Give the backbone structure.
Amino acid sequence: MATGHTIVVGGGIVGVSTAYYLARRGHRVTLVERGELGAGASGGNAGIVAIGHPPMPRPGLVRQVLKWMLNGGSPLYVPPRFDPALFRWLWDFRRACTEDKFRRSMNVLAALGRETRACFEQIMSDESMTCEFHRGGWREVFRTEAGLAEGRVAAEILQEHDFDIEILDGDELRRREPVFRDDVVGAVQYTDSSFTDPLQFLLELAEKARGHGAVLHTNARIVDTLVSGGRFRAVRLHSGEQFQGDTLVLAAGIWTTQLARQLGISVPMQAGKGYHRNVTRPSPCLGVASVLSEKHVAVTPMGDVLRLSGTVEFSGINDRLNRRRLDMLSAAARTYLKGVGQCRTVSEWCGLRPCTADGLPVVGWAPGLTGVFLATGHARMGFTLGPVTGRLASECILDGKPSVDITALRADRFGTRRRNLDTARRRGNTDMTSRV
């Protein structure tokens, strides 16, 4: 087993999972988080462990996106602005929406899905986790026959990868879940998956990582990354404290792009803002997490609340709440579910998903610089793939190779920004470090 010290930047599900798997094997690991653990997309998502979930780019999506992108009431919204990086990203996204690339991406994501399911089960069992964790899958629910037909096609793709799928007509769905309205025509149930409260899971996993010896620093901003001889050496915090290490793991979500750029590494991503609104539970309440397909909104029972979540907004790196998009969540839920209109809002939130143009995460060693590992770019699959990404990162660091082929996720697929890396300090954009 490799010895030394690994510094993980980012306190979301990917960073915490990486710290957990490293510490579990006795490795010295320090995690640094700019804010609080799970304050970003890792804690505010739908909580669905959707193994085998398809990537964002897919065949036929480009025309639909063009209709959506300037409409503030659509599932995907791009506010008009001049942004060359966004234009380049959208161009690359368009190139990724082919049948061939979609199939190749699905092969990769299906393999990762099987592994991450094993990771969740291992964590729940080995660590005696107490957070709510519901097995039995999630559902994609449809109000139109055309939508259900498309859902069957998507289900067949996952069945090719040996995932269990169940098709429910509207009557059977309402027999199981009386909360659905009479005009809902059916659902596809992905029975291999599960759902949970993502923030509860993350915080408990962080405590397990601490129990294995990991040191976690929150509200700690990195102001310098020290590099010499083409190798990572240390980071310095805003407090003046310095951590020397052999390996740096950049798991900072959308902020990884700027961190990597300071080190001469290209990781082009866009921030896909998502929203959630927690409401009081209706009666009867949904029993299984579901995605309201035609509206692209997820509804997940979590403790005393029902979480309504979804939408993608490419408006840059900001935390501005768009009231119209929050109201879209409630409006969508009312069209599928009974009683939601009488529910009271408990809380509202938005967060930023790190989205690559090709729809695949970035997991691998940084090009041209020794000792830097990248783990980011999971878009809407961050919570699902967080544990397996952490495990794979630990295997690369401690064993020299991962147990799963991650060639398609390599960090050098975007090229390398050429610059002199043999300087002692990297300054600038220091508050963009690790708020995942």
Notes: The first strand starts at residue 5 and ends at 9. Residues 418-436 have pLDDT under 50 and may be disordered. The longest helix spans residues 99-126.
